[in-house]
Every structure is written in C-alpha cells, then in structure tokens.
Design brief:
The protein has 15 helices and 5 strands. The protein is mostly helical. It has 3 domains: 231 residues, no CATH class; 46 residues, no CATH class; 89 residues, no CATH class. The relative contact order is 0.11.
C-alpha cells in the first residue's frame, strides 16, 4: 500500500490530559520531540494516555531523525517512493558529504524507534480508556537540529506539501483550529502504522544498498577525474540527468543481489500485523458512541477536521485490506503478463524465500518461475470502488485510514 505519509506523523501527537502538559498543548510548541520523549520516558506511574503519548513520541521522533539525517547530508531523496523518504527537507548550504551507508543506517535507526513505539503502546491494557487531546498545529520537526521551530518545520506544513503538493503554508499561527482527541481505538491505529514503517525498513535493509552506492560513487569519481572535473559528494544525490542515471544504477545494484531472507520474512510479518491491528481499530471505531473531536468518525460521529466520510467508505477500505491480506497469504496472486487470468505471482513466497530482483529475468519469466502458479489473481475492483466513494481523494483517505 502506498501512503503519502507525512501528516500521518502529525496525528500521533502527545499532549493535554497527561501529567506533564495538563494545561494545554501549546507547551509542545516550545519543546522539541527529543525533549518531550525524554520527559515522558522518565514519567513515573504512566496512565494509559501517557503510554499512548510516549508511543506517539517515539514514532514521531523516529520520523524526525530521518529528516535530520537527510538534511545533515543534503540528501533530499524525496523522489524515492519509500515511506519517510517522501517527506520534504530544506536545502542545507553546509552539508556533510554524502556517504554510502546513509540510507541503510537511516532505516536501521527507524526500526529501533518503531520497536520503542510498539513497546510503549503494548503497555496499554485492551480495556483501558485513552483520551489524548491534540492541536496538530502545535507540533513540529526540528529538521535542522537547532532546537527552534523554524518556518516550514510544522508537522502540518510538512504533511500538506507531501499529501497535496501545497505551497508554503507559512507559520502555524495562521492555521485554523486543528483539535483532535485520540482515544482507545487509535492505539491499534498507531500500532498499525509502526508495523507499516517497520516493514518498509526491513525491506530496505534486506536489500542493503551500501555496496551498490559505494560502487557507483567510486566509478563516477574516477570518470570525473578522467574528464578533469571535480567530484563533489555533497551534491551527489540530485535531479539532473547524470545524477538520475547514477541513482538508477544504485537502485538496480541494490535489488540485483540476494536479499536477507530474515529481513524479508520480518517485513512480511509486519504487514500481516498491520492488517490485524487495522481490524482491531475498525472494530473499535464502529463501537464508539461519543462524538468529541473525532479523528476518524463512524457513521454516527463527525470528523473534527471537517472532511465528509461516506458511510460505506470504511467497509470498502476493509475490503482493500482483505485483498492485501490474501496477497500476503498467497490466496490471491499478482497478475503476470504471460499467464493472463490463469494465475500469477505468489507474493507470500517472494517474502518467505526471496529471489534476486533481476528485471530482465522477471520480465521474461524464468527468474520468477518458482513463484508462478495457477489460481485467482487480484483485480483493481476494490480500489476503484473506494476511489469512487471518496470522490477521487484516495490518497488522502488511504493516509487517514491506514
């Protein structure tokens, strides 16, 4: 599933009815995520709401670290269709030289933060009442590591650019009220998102691109030397034609190797856990009877942010999740051009016994032959139905629903 994911980070915020910030969420605007995480970690006798806040902070902090690393090395990388890489970062005029292990290190750290988030959320009993009031406009990422909220660092601002391609929204002071109350079902919602990011992280590390990046960078440096031109590592990742070719070569080199099966199996498990948590979340949403600053409402509630949610949309989304689960379990197959409607690729086998990703042998077929079988193939019917119900806003609602 593809999630334009920035705002997702915003919505897991931490605030008001906690022992630290009982007065208002405005305190969050003064504190960095790192400081807030330290405070909540040290808090004794945490309530279920405190545990949710701590889980949310670990999640947000994990995303923030990816932005900080990319800014530190001036590695935009937002053209990569990978969660957290899509988030925009400003240019750094004094960046460190790009290094080959940057991407692998970034995702390895992200996996640690997602583990910490789930560990905090796991401390919340199933029967506990969670109530966490949040003004989304108070939240920010310290992208440039200066411990000050600067223009463009608001989570809502970052999310608007990613989700809607919006221009600069300016300072958060000009934003309308964005008060949300996260409650008990949202524990499963946030847990599901941690599994999504963990799945992405495991796959990146499984195809560790460090060696491929190093080889391409060394070759480019030698060719520049032959031409008598300088090689600048700080500008190595960019968008011009030469850099795009280098990036393609890096990606191909990373994929065209034997992946770590332990990592791909872990990613598979995370995706199945994500779907299981989603089922818990939707069951909890449907059972709610209150109507207070709802993030995702049921048919008898109102969305705090003012969007209209067709009553059938939640069920249509769960049909999509069911299709994905069937793919992950091998009950549905991915269409393959040489089999037509007779069969396709077994995704479960790809995760559990991963092959080298060789685009030539995959297109021709002999590289995929052990993973091809007869059986029902997935269609785009469920996606089309959901798109129609949401008025074409499938990207936005995919993010909202997880």
């Amino acid at each position: 599933m593809r999630f334009a994911f920035t705002l997702a980070t915003a919505l897991f915020a931490t605030t008001a009815p906690t022992q630290i910030w009982a007065q208002s969420t405005a305190q969050l605007g003064a504190d960095s995520l790192a400081t807030a995480t330290e405070r909540f970690t040290a808090l004794p006798d945490k309530t279920p709401s405190d545990q949710f806040a701590l889980g949310a902070l670990h999640f947000l902090r994990g995303v923030e670290k990816t932005l900080q690393v990319r800014w530190e090395y001036n590695a935009a990388l937002d053209d990569l269709d990978i969660p957290v890489m899509r988030l925009p970062v400003p240019s750094n005029p004094d960046a460190k030289p790009f290094k080959p292990d940057l991407i692998t290190g970034l995702f390895t750290e992200l996996l640690t933060d997602m583990d910490a988030s789930r560990a905090a959320l796991a401390q919340i009993p199933d029967s506990a009442d969670v109530a966490l009031n949040v003004n989304l406009a108070d939240l920010w990422f310290d992208i440039n590591r200066n411990n000050t909220r600067d223009m463009g660092e608001g989570i809502v601002e970052v999310g608007a650019v990613t989700l809607m391609g919006a221009p600069d929204l300016g300072d958060a002071e000009g934003l309308p009220p964005m008060d949300i109350r996260f409650d008990t079902p949202d524990v499963a919602w946030l847990t599901a998102y941690t599994h999504l990011l963990s799945a992405a992280g495991e796959l990146v590390v499984a195809f560790d691109p460090t060696a491929a990046i190093s080889s391409v960078m060394n070759a480019t440096q030698k060719m520049n030397e032959m031409r008598g031109e300088p090689f600048t590592r700080s500008g190595f990742i960019g968008a011009n034609e030469t850099q795009w070719i280098d990036q393609f070569a890096m990606a191909y080199g990373a994929l065209n190797q034997q992946p770590d099966a332990i990592r791909t199996r872990a990613a598979h498990a995370h995706l199945l856990s994500m779907i299981a948590e989603n089922k818990t979340f939707w069951a909890g949403i449907e059972a709610e009877t209150d109507n207070v600053n709802e993030w995702i409402p049921n048919p008898n509630q109102t969305a705090a942010l003012g969007f209209d949610l067709p009553p059938e949309a939640s069920m249509a989304w769960q049909v999509i999740l069911g299709d994905v689960e069937s793919l992950l379990k091998g009950d549905l197959l991915i269409p393959y051009w040489r089999l037509g409607t007779a069969g396709g690729v077994n995704m479960q086998k790809l995760f559990l016994d991963p092959p080298v990703f060789d685009i030539v042998t995959w297109i021709q077929g002999h590289g995929l032959l052990p993973y091809l079988q007869r059986g029902p193939v997935i269609t785009d019917d469920s996606i089309n139905q959901f798109d129609a119900l949401t008025g074409g806003d499938i990207m936005l609602f995919s993010f909202l629903f997880n």
